[in-house]
Amino acid sequence: MTGSGYRKLGKTAPQRKALLRNQVTNLLYHGKITTTDTRAKEVKRIAEKMITLAIKEKDNFEEVEVTAKVAKKDANGNRVKETVNGKKVTVYTEVKKTIKKDNISRLNARRKMLSYLYPVTEVPKDGRKARTLSKEVDMCAKLFDEVAPKYVDRKGGYTRTIKLGARKGDAAEMVILELV
C-alpha cells in the first residue's frame, strides 16, 4: 500500500470523489450498500466521521418561535385570491411556528455534511405522479434526528462489513457495508 493516506481506487480525483460521495450518501440514506471491499473501506472512513459529527452536535440547537406567512387555501387546495386595486392578490395568514435554530458549531457541522452528501429525492414506489409526489430528503436532519440517537452510547464502529465472496467477471471481493 502506498503512503498517500487513502486508496485511489483506479480513478481520477473527481471520479473517485463522486463515487465516494454517492456511496456515502446511499449508505446513510438506505442503511446498507453492496460494493467492493476496498471501496467499502474508504466509504466506511468517511461515513463514520459523518456519524461522529452528527452525534457530537445532535442536541446543539435552540427552539425559537417565529411567525410565518402562509397562503390561505380553499377546500381544493388552491390559493385564495382577492382583488385589490384591480389586481388579483393571494391572501396570506400569519402562523406561529417553532423551529430548531442551530448553534454555531452545529451549523458548521451541517454545512460540512451538506458539502459532502448529495441531495436525495424520494420518489413514490409506484412511479405514478413522480414529479408532484417526489420530495427532497434533508440528509442532515436525518443524520441528527434518526442516525445519531442510535449511536450515542457507542464509541465508534458504526458500520459493519459482511463478505459476499468474489464477483463473477473480475473476481473483486464483494461486501455488504451496513450501519450497525
Task: List the SSEs and their pairings.
Layout: H1 13-30, E1 32-36, H2 37-57, E2 61-71, E3 81-84, E4 87-90, E5 92-102, H3 104-116, E6 120-122, H4 130-133, E7 135-137, H5 139-150, E8 159-166, E9 173-179
Antiparallel strand pairs: 1-9, 2-5, 3-4, 6-7, 8-9
Helix pairs in contact: 1-2, 2-3, 2-5
Explain what this protein looks like in three dimensions.
The protein has helices spanning 13-30, 37-57, 104-116, 130-133, 139-150, and strands spanning 32-36, 61-71, 81-84, 87-90, 92-102, 120-122, 135-137, 159-166, 173-179. It is α+β, with helices and mostly antiparallel strands. The longest helix is centred in the first third of the chain and has 21 residues, at 37-57.
Provide a brief overview of the structure.
By secondary structure, the protein is of the alpha+beta class.
Which spans have pLDDT < 50 for at least 5 consecutive residues? Answer: none
Q: Which strand-content bin applies to the residues?
A: 25-35%
Spatial gap, N to C terminus = 28 Å
Dominant shape: elongated
Rg over alpha carbons:
22 Å
Q: If you consult CATH, what is the topology of the largest domain?
A: 50s Ribosomal Protein L17, Chain: A
> What is the number of helical segments per DSSP (H or I, 4+ residues)?
5
CATH second-level architecture of the largest domain? Alpha-Beta Complex
Total domain modules: 2
Instruction: List the helices and strands in order.
Output: HEHEEEEHEHEHEE
Helix content: 25-40%
Q: What is the CATH superfamily of the largest domain? A: Ribosomal protein L17
What average pLDDT do the residues reach? Answer: 92
Strand order within the widest beta sheet: 1-9-8
CATH class of the largest domain: Alpha Beta
Q: List how many beta strands DSSP finds.
A: 9
